[in-house]
């Protein structure tokens, strides 16, 4: 099972002649199984062989973004690519394809840019004509007795147009620079203007009357220029005034026609770019092809170029080498002029990458694990168990039949096609996780017998109500979950509190024990018998003999019938006495006799006492006796480039590259500590952390009890404060009251319980998954297998 442990990886040398580098990389891109190792991760991209091609691809992508921006401005719909691989196969070309794409895209972008500049100039011209017209049409309103008198007295006038939003600021600055020696008239223009950036703005006409003076005029002129205002002259005679208006109206009509024609041409051009050529619009097709070229050259830059060949190292999942070799042979067979690339398996000390075959169901659970850390190569993957344990832990805290059913229905909706097109498309990848959380919340709600804070009588009760008190029927056991009679008892909260607390401890110890067992499987898989005997067995026995024994006492106490509940011993008291008074006979034993319980507890305590020094000193002692250093490195020097070889040199270089690996990588392996001192410190920390962590981690699982209790109490409060009294009242008025109060109940349930409380339960389950469970066995020091594959190319459309 690939999800239990990572896929078996094989290390290969890759040798590609320079003449066929693009063709080989293009062929490998259709496989989802090649992990290319960067020969020098510290080398800047600008110093790599194809950095110029990558830069050109970036420039072309900017052109595509400009075209795409224009299409959005003109509200032109385009079709995204449903299948990237199918498109790439249809448009499969040669290494010269990018030059053709670059020419086509740059030509289209330049043409659109020229048309855009023409449209902007026409729009600016139209706005200027309109402003002049508005000034002339409003000139009559400005020509009053005061303005005529001001002209006779030698005052000057200045008329122009400013933005409405700048009106108050313009007045204030003009008043300050002229010290109030100015008269300002403002008149709004009713029709709006379209700016070059396509903003719709409102403008107004201003007229300034100020005393003669070159200094004042220069100050006003600078202010007008700072506001980017246009100022206009007003004809003195009425005939000139009318002629100017007629001329401007004709110019406005011509500018309107030219602007409309230009917009039509741009729109038609963009419509052509949105047409479907193969399986998507032309612009999306170009985007994918250019992205592919950039992706290809970025990965080709990870190979080391020496003389006439590219060489590097790759990882392949086991069994994929035959497919790769056959594809390379087919490439050479289709075109004899193309030299074939070659791969050759070799041994290495490098740590292989971690690779799992994921699908839409397992992806979100693996992401939870990867967020904490990438699994080490071949170590047990917590993602497999997380599929069940994580939703179950959330369901324990969120246990309610009604709320679980609502969440389950939401998960079902997210699996439909309509959800992908709705506002919930962002959580569609989590649909199966939500589905499982809803299922386990409903399951735990059945155990708690809790439906929106109401108990359900599904299987009848084992208690009979006699004279106002409940009496237990003889030899009656409730079939599943909590008997509904407890919902009416006075000590319901105390009973559920005790039950959920014990259940949380049992789940926690079981979860942690499972993690330690996985650690044992890991040590056996890696043949690390020292850790198996010195860590796994002592840790397993310590947890089992302490908190495992406590869980056993809980089950034993539940299965024992006490005539008087006061005679039932306290499990916590028994555990404390086991440590503080190990030689005393228990006053209230759970076993048949106190001596038998004392002997068993002494045996368990002795095992715990011996486990701690075994974990602490055994491993350093054996390490010091072996005196073996496991710290390994592999460092392989790079080759010094030579001059371009002749054809005979090509074959020689390829044979040479196959015989030895090339890499500047120096990767440290997962080995033991260098010296005995470091190991002693490390083992001391590990021992103290495990012993103390066993207590703290067990207590940490009590959050299952706390959040479950908080959830049920909140649900009860919302129900009792809204519709509970009206339902109990019954009748017409009770029905009306329930209908009126139901929206408040629904909003409180959705906002607080279904959203806030669910998120809180999710976060606490993450804590239990990462810290309490995974810390028992999970190293999380691996790195992901990053396949060189064209399936990594995404369109602008949001992918699932």
Structural class call reads alpha+beta
N/C terminus separation:
25 Å
By DSSP (H or I, 4+ residues per run), the number of helices equals 24
Task: Please give the largest β-sheet.
Answer: 5 strands, antiparallel
**Structural domain tally:** 3
Proportion in helices: 55-70%
Portion in beta strands? 5-15%
What best-fitting shape do the alpha-carbon axes yield?
extended
**Total beta strand runs:** 13
- Poorly predicted regions are 629-645, 656-671
What is the arithmetic mean of pLDDT?
85
Rg, rounded, reads 40 Å
Coiled coil: 112-139
InterPro entries: V-ATPase_116kDa_su, V-type_ATPase_116kDa_su_euka
Transmembrane segments: 390-414, 426-448, 503-521, 533-556, 599-618
Biased composition (Polar residues): 657-668
Description:
By secondary structure, the chain is α+β, with helices and mostly antiparallel strands. Strands 1, 2, 9, 10 and 11 form a 5-stranded antiparallel β-sheet that branches. A 4-stranded antiparallel β-sheet has the order 4-7-3-8, sandwiched between helices. The chain has a two-stranded antiparallel sheet with strand order 5-6. The protein is 58% helix and 8% strand. The protein starts with 8 loop residues before the first strand and ends in a 27-residue tail after the last helix. The radius of gyration is 40 Å and the shape is extended. Mean pLDDT is 85; it is low at 629-645 and 656-671. Helix 17 (529-559) packs antiparallel against helix 19 (594-626).
Write a concise synopsis of the structure shown.
One of its GO terms (cellular component) is vacuolar proton-transporting V-type ATPase, V0 domain. The protein has helices spanning 21-28, 51-73, 84-90, 97-142, 145-152, 167-177, 214-226, 238-273, 282-300, 321-334, 363-372, 382-397, 401-414, 417-420, 431-448, 492-525, 529-559, 571-580, 594-626, 647-659, 676-700, 702-722, 724-729, 731-773, and strands spanning 9-17, 35-37, 156-163, 183-188, 193-194, 200-201, 203-210, 230-232, 304-306, 309-317, 342-345, 463-466, 469-472.
């Amino acid at each position: 099972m690939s999800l239990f442990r990572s896929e078996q990886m094989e290390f290969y040398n890759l040798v590609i002649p320079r003449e066929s580098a693009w063709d080989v990389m293009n062929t490998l891109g259709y496989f989802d199984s090649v992990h290319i190792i960067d020969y020098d991760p510290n080398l800047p991209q600008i110093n790599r062989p194809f950095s110029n091609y990558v830069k050109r691809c970036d420039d072309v992508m900017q052109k595509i973004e400009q075209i795409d921006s224009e299409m959005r401005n003109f509200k032109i719909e385009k079709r995204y690519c449903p299948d990237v691989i199918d498109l790439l196969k249809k448009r499969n070309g040669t290494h010269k394809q990018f030059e053709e794409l670059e020419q086509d895209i740059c030509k289209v972008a330049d043409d659109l840019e020229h048309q855009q500049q023409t449209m902007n100039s026409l729009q600016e011209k139209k706005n200027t004509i309109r402003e002049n017209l508005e000034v002339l049409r409003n000139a009559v309103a400005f020509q009053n007795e005061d303005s005529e008198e001001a002209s006779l007295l030698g005052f000057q006038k200045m008329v122009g147009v400013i933005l409405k939003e700048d009106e108050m600021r313009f007045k204030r600055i003009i008043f300050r620079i002229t010290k109030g020696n100015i008269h300002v008239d403002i008149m709004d223009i009713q029709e709006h203007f379209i700016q070059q950036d396509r903003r719709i703005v409102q403008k107004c006409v201003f007229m300034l009357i100020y005393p003669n003076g070159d200094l004042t005029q220069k100050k006003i002129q600078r202010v007008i220029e700072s506001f980017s205002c246009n100022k206009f002259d007003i004809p003195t005679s009425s005939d000139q005034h009318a002629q100017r208006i007629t001329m401007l109206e004709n110019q406005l009509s011509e500018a309107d026609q030219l602007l409309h024609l230009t917009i039509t041409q741009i729109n038609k051009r963009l419509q052509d770019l949105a047409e479907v050529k193969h399986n998507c619009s032309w612009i999306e097709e170009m985007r994918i092809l250019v992205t592919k070229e950039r992706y290809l050259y970025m990965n080709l830059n990870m190979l080391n170029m020496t003389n006439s060949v590219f060489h590097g190292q790759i990882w392949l999942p086991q069994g994929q080498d035959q497919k790769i070799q056959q594809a390379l042979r087919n490439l050479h067979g289709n075109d004899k002029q193309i030299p074939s690339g070659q791969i050759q398996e070799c041994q290495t000390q490098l740590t292989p990458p971690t690779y799992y075959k994921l699908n839409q169901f397992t992806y979100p659970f693996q992401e939870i694990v990867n967020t904490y850390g990438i699994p080490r190569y071949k170590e047990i993957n917590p993602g497999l168990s997380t599929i069940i344990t994580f939703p179950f832990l959330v369901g324990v805290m969120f246990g309610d039949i009604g709320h679980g059913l609502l969440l389950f229905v939401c998960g079902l909706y997210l699996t439909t096609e309509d959800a992908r097109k709705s506002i919930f498309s962002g959580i569609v990848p989590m649909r199966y996780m939500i589905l499982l959380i809803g299922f386990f919340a409903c399951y735990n709600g059945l155990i708690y017998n809790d439906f929106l804070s109401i108990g359900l009588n599904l299987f009848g009760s084992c208690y009979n109500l006699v004279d106002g008190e409940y009496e237990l029927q003889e030899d009656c056991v409730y079939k599943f979950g909590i008997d509904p009679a407890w919902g009416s008892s006075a000590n319901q909260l105390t009973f559920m509190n005790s039950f959920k607390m014990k259940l949380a401890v049992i789940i926690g110890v079981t979860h942690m024990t499972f993690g330690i067992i996985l650690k044992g499987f890991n040590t056996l898989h890696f043949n690390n018998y020292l850790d198996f005997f010195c860590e796994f067995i002592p840790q397993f026995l310590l947890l089992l003999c302490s908190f495992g024994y406590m869980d056993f006492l809980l089950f034993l106490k539940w299965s024992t019938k006490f005539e008087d509940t006061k005679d039932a011993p306290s499990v916590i008291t028994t555990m404390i006495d086991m440590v503080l008074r190990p030689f005393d006979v228990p006053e209230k034993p759970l076993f048949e006799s106190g001596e038998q319980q004392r002997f068993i507890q002494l045996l368990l305590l002795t095992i715990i006492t011996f486990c701690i020094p075994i974990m602490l000193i055994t491993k350093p002692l054996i390490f010091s006796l072996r005196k073996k250093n496991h710290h390994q490195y592999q460092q392989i020097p790079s080759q010094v480039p030579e001059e371009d070889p002749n054809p005979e040199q090509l074959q020689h270089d390829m044979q040479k590259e196959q015989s030895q690996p090339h890499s500047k990588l120096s990767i440290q392996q997962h080995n033991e500590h260098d010296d005995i001192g470091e190991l002693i410190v490390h083992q001391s920390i590990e021992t103290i952390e495990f012993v103390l962590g066993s207590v703290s981690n067990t207590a940490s699982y009590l959050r299952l009890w706390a959040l479950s209790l908080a959830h049920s109490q909140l649900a009860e409060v919302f129900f009792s404060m809204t519709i509970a009294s009206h339902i109990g009242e019954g009748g017409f008025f009770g029905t009306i009251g329930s209908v009126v109060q139901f929206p408040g109940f629904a909003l409180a349930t959705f906002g607080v319980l279904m959203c806030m409380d669910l998120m809180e339960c999710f976060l606490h389950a993450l804590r239990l998954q990462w810290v309490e469970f995974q810390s028992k066995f999970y190293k999380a020091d691996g790195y992901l297998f990053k396949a060189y594959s064209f399936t990594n190319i995404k369109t602008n459309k949001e992918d699932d």
